[in-house]
Amino acid sequence: MTDTTHIRWDLRPGDLGRIAALHGEVYATEPGFPGDLTFEAYVCRTLSDFMLENHGAGRIWLAEKGGRLVGCTAMVDRGGRGQLRWVLVAPQARGTGLGRDLVGRAMDYAYEQGWRQVFLETTTGLPASMAIYEKLGFKLVSETPLEHWNAGGHTQLTMVKALS
Q1: Residue 73 CB-density burial (10 A; 0-12 exposed, 13-18 middle, 19+ buried)
Q2: DSSP labels for 59-109?
Q3: What is the pLDDT of residue 150?
Q4: How far apart are CA 79 and CA 128, in angstroms?
Q5: Mode of pairing for the β-strands spanning 58-65 and 68-77
Q6: Residue 146 CA from chain centroid, whole number
């Protein structure tokens, strides 16, 4: 019996915590990222804002394998445009096309919503993610010092893709 990856977007109790935990666990081991709890806490804040301030407007996709969360992404409704967020694939699931699949689903959703634009905020030091964004046609529009978490010299990159 093969252990396949299932992708769903029906959020259930505990899912937001699982997303934050996955980010904390993965980024604690990524070169150049803080090995402390500041990044996980930052993700918790952004997930909380998504639900409490943005009323969960948009959609989150969760990729699960064997009952474990191995990837996620989201498209957040920002009033006529979308924000691509929380793009992450666990190391054991990388190289399978899962990241491309998750981001593709999010972009399809943005098109279905009729949004004029999608933007994302990412950081330097993530070449696989950057390759996906650039292949999809996202363009870099700004680079700013990263102050959200113990960033270790990383720069925040804002990228935009027009949908119309």
Answers
A1: buried
A2: EEEEEEETTEEEEEEEEEE-SSEEEEEEEEE-GGGTTSSHHHHHHHHHHHH
A3: 59
A4: 29
A5: antiparallel
A6: 17
So what's the pLDDT on residue 3?
A: 75
Specify which residues 123 forms β-bridges with. 156
Tokens of 28: 């604690």
Cα–Cα distance, 103 to 61 (Å, whole number):
9
Q: Which residues of the chain have pLDDT under 70?
A: 1-2, 148-152
pLDDT of residue 1: 38
pLDDT value of residue 25: 95
Q: What is the DSSP letter of 132?
A: H
Give the tokens for residue 72: 């996620």
Buried b (16+ CB within 10 A) or exposed e, 128-140: ebbebbeeeebee
User: In whole angstroms, what separates CA 48 from the centre of its chain?
Assistant: 15
